[in-house]
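Aminopeptidase: structure tokens wanted.
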Amino acid sequence: MATSDRDVLPDSVKPIHYALDLFDLELGGGFSFGGRVKIELDVLNPVKEITLNAHQLSIVSAEVSGGKTASSIMYDEKSQRVTLTFPEEVTSAPHKAVLQIQYKGTMNNSMAGFYRSRYKPVVTPAKSVATDGESHCMFSTQFETADARRAFPCFDEPNLKATFEVSIEIPEDQIALSNTPEKAVKTSKNGRKVVSFERTPRMSTYLVAWAFGDFEYVEDFTRRTYNGKNIPVRVYTTRGLKEHGRFALENCHRIVDYFSKIFKIDYPLPKIDLLAVHEFSHNAMENWGLITYRTTAVLFDEQQSDAKYKNRVAYVVAHELAHQWFGNLVTMDWWNELWLNEGFATWVGWLAVDHLYPDHQVWQTFVQEAMQTAFSLDSLRASHAVEVPVKDALEVEQIFDAISYLKGSSAIRMLSGHIGIDIFLEGVAAYLELHKYGNATTDDLWAALSEASGKNVKEFMDPWIRKIGFPVLTVAEEPGQIGVRQSRFLSTGDVKPEDDKVLWWVPLGLKTNVQSTGAATAALTVKEETLRNIDETFYKFNTDQAGFYRTNYPPARLETIGVERHKLSPEDKVGLVADAAALAVAGQATTAGFLSLVEKFKDESNKAVWSQIISSLENIRSIFADNKALVTGLRVFTVRLVAPATEKIGWEFAPNEDYLTGQLRALLLSTAGSAGHEKTVAEAQDRFEAYQSGERSAIHPSLRRAVFSIVIHEGGEPAYKAVQEEYLTTTSIDGKETCLIALGKVQITDLVNSFLDFQFSDKVAIQDLHTGSISLAENSKVRNELWKYIKENWTAVHKKLSANISTTNNYFKKTLSKFASHEIEKDIAAFFKDKDTKGYDRGIIEVLDTVRANASYKERDEQLVLEWLEAHGYT
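Answer:
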């Protein structure tokens, strides 16, 4: 992307160093603060005007070296810039100058910029802790992508790197943190102190961070030495929660050592702090040396937490630590290459978890969760390329999505599998060494990987990164040979010639009984090819689902592979099931074929495979939800399919049981219960009653979500009220999230409106608004009520959501895409037509594309599915 295609700041001056002082923090209710920033500038051209970024700041004064004071301060709210005009030229180039700005800002409650998070203390807090209504507050920052400008005037673009020194005046009984270690503490006025921090390395503004509050920490050290020392690693929490940081702490020091080894560059800062933030728009943020997390992504309570959060914490910690090198040390040149940060950190995050916890079998989960989520978005016409043009940094939030993260990481997994992980990491290490403390592009990464592998990586990877979509490999059989053809896959099934112009490099990964040909390592680089001398007794393409594509087999072959599924890896099985379901949606195969395939899996014991079967079935049940006979048939099908495995695994957790068995139990019980399996429903109700009577051990923490969901689905208002009370009183870290998901299973219209009123009240944090609503959207009985509520209460809904644009985008994308009706598609389009959808317009287009695909699928397959269910005794 040419620089001229970007809306960027003028290039006459560039920042070298920022000295930032924060003071006069109003903690009694107004939440204003004062700031002073001194910016050392490299003046490249003589200039009278200096333009930089500022948003929701009030500049009091500005002057440059020599006492020149700005004669005019002009704000451009739309572009979030301020132009300072001086009476004469600042200096003659080339020259250094210092720009000093006094300003005022607000510690907002929007989870962006310098903001406050509300929480309920679990122990008596320090006296000075601020309150906001009935809650107490901690304060932290979130600057990616373009919100450093909310906290201090700055040159807020990723390639305008500089060094930073921060000082902040806070109450004496609180703790302040920043990217670097504390340098000095001085007593200030009125029971306050000024905490100043060491100078940072050269870095981008979006990685600057600070925080303060009533904090405490647990500490450990890296086992490797760095400059002769073991680096201190700390997890900070508000008072009373620090012990829940120990699992993240243990992961953190091990992962830092692992990444330092495989990247061949030592972690470059003298400390690593992880901070649990009570209100957070994303999972976490990779600020250099001070990584911030939402609580459920960094804290884990061995007694009360659902074990699934262990994997989440391990992965999110690894993902953010990967950024310390890939993103922080070497940063993308501009936001169009966001995937360089996120796609790589996602892949290497999974790599680190696999290294630490091989028994978690995380690559199976990757294929089932990450790849399928990426496929889902990338099968829409409204998708975008992994590397996407970005004119304005304010557009970027919408591409923090499944394409940048999950298609990006899937492409890296495909490439690393092709050239070998060791060679791939050699190339990555060379890339990091060459560009450290600077900025780089996708082509820079391809060059390093080409050098390491001896292959032209750019040639075969560019279509995957710079073009939209992915292929389906259609297989045709003739005696002694197999024909394969690649074409664009769209879930709407209506591929036009103009949609299908990309020629992908498709690694075939052919698995057979004897592996007698070179086709296993070959790649399809033309539209069609014939493979000869293939062992036709058994074969499967895309071994372990290493390639980012779907495969469409002839119906008889799909049947054969299903019968011989024991020859497949779990990743192969996940891919087989997922492809069959997706091809049915697109009209390239049938739902009957999918049902015939999964019917064979009653004896399956793998968690990832069951997850894929169940999520595919739930999608089918959701799409055909308006046909009562069909829904009944699918429920019976589901119960008969999962009942043997559910009854075999039971309710009890054995001592020292492995992680995946526990997670499979939760999945099967939840599925069987929601489908109406009588034994499971009865047991869930008995356990819930015991739990409500004070016998908290009646429900294992990993089964709370399943049990709460089942009893609400079956039990009406009393169960709903009981789980709502649980939400209000739970002390479990993941308790609120669990309750919101369960509350979304309500079956009664009045309770839906009550739940939505509750969600949009002050009882539910903005960060969690989507959690319950996604559960309602997945609930076919009541999802129409959700859409009706959004329309009828638009002013209040939008006001609450719009505090944070990523929350808004996330909410609508995930709550409106489950419909399967052309009428509702038109209704959604009409409703948003006259709304200002800046920041989530791409998401609405994706919703409409998805609903259109669902509706076409429903019309095409509804009668056929009903006939199959009747013919096979499920109705």
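The longest strand covers residues 32-43. The first helix runs from residue 246 to 263.

Cheers.
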